[in-house]
Design a protein that fits this description.
Blueprint (H helix, E strand, L loop, with lengths): L5 H11 E3 L15 E5 L14 H5 L9 H8 L3 E6 L33 H8 L5 E6 L5 H7 L2 E4 L19 E6 L2 H12 L10 E5 H5 L3 H18 L2 E4 L6 H27 L7 H9 L3 H21 L4 E6 L12 H22 L3 E9 L2 E9 L4 H17 L6
Parallel strand pairs: 2-3, 2-4, 7-8, 7-9
Antiparallel strand pairs: 1-3, 4-6, 5-6, 5-10, 9-11, 10-11
Helix pairs in contact: 1-4, 6-13, 8-13, 9-10, 9-11, 9-12
């Protein structure tokens, strides 16, 4: 189901937004005349940042300064028209908020939009805004981009300022963005990312075979069809194994470190306020509060090894192809056990790669299976964000000229 009628758009708008705050552009530039929405983790002067939970909203006051990334977009000519729903304290990949409801997935309203930047993806996919700002720690831009059939990027860690955003897991947190078409996606990126020197064209492609291995056969087939299209534009991709000891080990390393950092950022507030959390999120915070310090120390050491592996594999001029998500969007109100023990685990095996390495990743809406989108991703070396954008633009532009539909 595509959001099309005025009634559908109004319903989507109500579901995706938590605050209809309007901020006029503060300059003119490449984004003049465009509208955008902002995930409710970024501060806007005069507004209260709700972080996906009514108790956070209740216990915090109005902000004195607008987040740097939001201000960059305003200065480039865009107008902000609202704050968007996020999962509770951003600690979920589903997009289902126990308190505020679930933003609509514009591709199929019976399915989840993905989280935690759920409202931002919903607003862009439904045509309510031209583009939107999100954040990505464990996949919170990449998963909604995949589920909603959008372009979405997680940049090199630290590349886009997070000044004026709520800290979550600081060594993984990134600002990111969504757009429906590659041209606008590229324009927004060049505002947020700034200059890159020297910028070297990506000429070498790798395909992560272990990232495909555990997916359902029909998903593998659809993704490999898209890989073949990429190869027609950018050349053959060398098949590689990312994790000799298994991506599930990498994923466990990521989850342990992420949980430790999240509790370090939010634990004091949670213990003081005792907020009510929905299914899945409640269990994750309980687990984060009881982490074994020796497991955290071991994970830090393992991250060093993983980072060295990734940085060696992805020098400047090289990009890695892998699935963004292991499947299309699950149905709304799927059993929590199924989402947590099966799906979230599979997804984190893919999503942990860029996070552990601090690497840029773009999800491209190039795959469709049974009428639903699945993202295909490009991961580049640290600091190669603009080169990765150039490659994405080349791939998707070429497909458009050849009459090949982007999902």
């Amino acid at each position: 189901m595509q959001v099309g009628s005025s009634e559908e758009k109004e319903a989507a708008k109500a579901a995706a937004t938590v605050d209809h705050i309007f901020v006029e552009s503060t300059g003119s530039g490449p984004l003049s005349g465009l509208t955008f929405a902002v995930k409710d983790v970024f501060h806007v002067k005069g507004g209260v940042t709700g972080f996906g939970h009514p108790d956070w909203l209740r216990t915090h006051g109005a902000e004195a300064v607008t987040a740097v990334a939001v201000q960059q977009l305003l200065d480039a000519g865009a107008t902000m028209v609202g704050k968007t729903v996020t999962d509770e304290l951003a600690y979920s990949l589903t997009g289902e908020n126990y308190h505020y409801g679930t933003p609509i997935n514009p591709r199929d309203a019976t399915r989840i939009p993905g989280g935690s930047s759920s409202g931002s993806a919903s607003a862009v996919g439904g045509g309510l805004v031209d583009f939107a700002l999100g954040s990505d720690c464990g996949g919170s831009v990449r998963i909604p981009a995949s589920y909603c059939g959008l372009f979405g990027m997680r940049p090199t860690h630290g590349r886009i300022s997070l000044e004026g955003a709520i800290p979550f897991a600081p060594s993984f947190d990134c600002a990111g963005w969504f757009a429906r078409d590659i041209g606008l996606f590229d324009r927004v990126g060049r505002i947020l990312l700034g200059k890159e020197a020297p910028k070297q064209e990506i000429r070498t492609l790798l395909l992560a075979t272990d990232a495909l291995a555990d997916l359902a056969p029909e998903v593998q087939e659809a993704l490999l069809g898209a890989v073949a299209l990429v190869e027609t534009v950018a050349g053959p991709a060398k098949r590689v194994t990312l994790a000799e000891n298994g991506l599930d080990r990498w994923s466990e390393t990521f989850r342990t470190l992420q949980a430790a950092e999240i509790w370090g950022s939010l634990g004091e507030w949670i213990e003081k306020v005792r907020p009510m959390f929905g299914p899945g999120i409640r269990e994750r915070f309980t687990s984060a509060a009881t982490l074994d310090p020796t497991a955290v120390d071991a994970a830090r050491k393992q991250r060093v090894n993983i980072t060295e592996r990734l940085w060696t594999l992805l020098p400047v001029g090289t990009a890695l192809i892998l699935p963004t998500a292991p499947r299309s969007a699950p149905y709304l109100a799927s059993k929590n056990e199924e989402l947590e023990t099966i799906y979230r685990h599979q997804a984190m095996n893919l999503l942990c790669v860029a996070g552990l390495g601090g690497l840029p990743q773009i999800s491209l809406p190039m795959v469709e299976l049974n009428g639903l989108p699945i993202g295909l991703s490009l991961i580049g070396g640290r600091g190669t964000d603009l080169a990765l954008l150039d490659l994405a633009k080349k791939i998707c532009g070429e497909h458009s000229r050849d009459g090949l539909e982007i999902a």
